[in-house]
Model the fold of this input.
Amino acid sequence: MPKRVQGSMKICIIGAGFVGLATGVTLGKQGHEVVFSDIDPGRVKSVNSGILPFFEPPLEKELKALVRKGKLTATTDSVGAVSASKFVFVCVQTPSLPSGRIDTRPVKSACNSIAKALRASNDYKVVVMKSTVVPSTTDSLVLPIIEKGSGKSAGKDFGLCMNPEFLQEGSALRDSMEPSRIVIGSLDKRSGDMLESLYKKMKSPLLRTDIRSAEMTKYASNTFLATKISYSNEVANMCERFGIDSEPVLKAVGMDPRIGPLFLRPGVGFGGSCLPKDVRALRDRARLDGYNSRLLSTLLAMNDEQPQEAIRLLEKAIGDIGSKRIAVLGLAFKGGVDDVRETRALPLITHLLAKRARVVAFDPMAIPNFIRLMPTIEYASSAAECLKGADGCIVQADWPQFKKIGKREISSMRQRVIIDGRRCLNPAAVRRAGARYLGIGYGLQEKD
Ligand code: NAD
Ligand code: UGA
Done:
């Protein structure tokens, strides 16, 4: 058994984003004292008032409670926050550069702050990389920056672990409190033992690995999820052409325990801040070692083309879409979130505009974020308003409230056609409400 971490620990989380805040709130709920450090003063202010900078209601509720109890604070002073802590979690963003490679500047900057704090301290601290970084980043970038800047030795004066995060947006707190697995890659046994002990209240299976295996586990997981989605899209695209509904087909496929039922829902492709970025980053990392991943290249190419499937269905139903008024429901990268990073709504609407359609869009939460990406299209204030006078509608995100669209909303459309780009609606219910239903992977005709 690893040496126990006794009682409440002081924990610094660098980067108060989805991962940082979910990690911090989880550890705060377990009785630890957490300080978030972020370079964005607005974010720091918001966290100190118990307000999340994004839409994730259960996480916000717990954040508020912990801030009120004085268990969580936030600061822009990373060096001070690291100095006062035993564990330091690096949770900064690692976005794509145009080449697909990850931009490591935020990680480097976080490491410089850690190094400064370690230089002035003789306390053994555990540095935990939680940001998603390609294999060898932790030992060949993070480690030397901290060692050089601090004058201390990794494994002796400070510990280093890589602990990938697997949470999904929309269920961030639950996933962080009850992860499907905890992977701890450690440079030195002592820091791995300490991190394992910090997680002792969690019931999840825990795997101990080396640092590079932990880094690779994250990419292998996300690229597998992207593969499952793209495979479902491939099957669905064929089913639609064959006059078959892909839903029972994929349901039966998912009943095989070797495959599993989740992530087999076809649609206009995978978006979000991580799946596309991680597929690109792993492909780029493989190239550095002379490996050309044809699978990852195909996933990206397929995903780029997938929004066109929804437009093809729309054209099949209403013909030329030039100068037609097209309603797009759902702008977030999936239902239930306000995050628009790599949302498929962007390529979808860009293609619609290129075909000279007039686009009117609605999302329950994501309009303020999406407007920054596309300031000039028309926005509606409700799904009902969006559908009014439309010549067709494409559902791009699976918000549960879109299922409630009924006769009243449908009857206000100029041409009653709904394209289900996420397979989240009930075809029969849409038809009962008076619209023609077409969906990704739905090849049945009205008479069926
Ligand atoms: P985010 O963009 O929501 O948050 C990152 C935060 O780090 C921002 O608030 C930013 O201001 C702050 N920051 C940047 N540089 C800093 C510095 N030098 N010092 C202090 N703060 C700094 O990012 P995220 O979505 O939480 O993702 C973080 C990492 O976790 C990424 O590598 C991502 O791939 C990975 N990840 C994300 C998710 C997810 O669902 N969003 C899930 C698993 C893993
Ligand atoms: C994803 C992974 O699911 C998490 O495990 C991972 O931790 C995270 O990325 C990350 O590394 O950041 P998330 O970005 O929240 O989580 O989004 P998902 O729920 O995976 O959805 C991604 C995209 O795939 C969305 O556009 C969604 O609509 C699409 N999707 C998902 C499908 O098209 N079909 C499906 O069956 C599932």
Notes: The first strand starts at residue 10 and ends at 14. The radius of gyration is 24 Å. The chain has 18 helices and 14 strands. The longest helix spans residues 211-242.
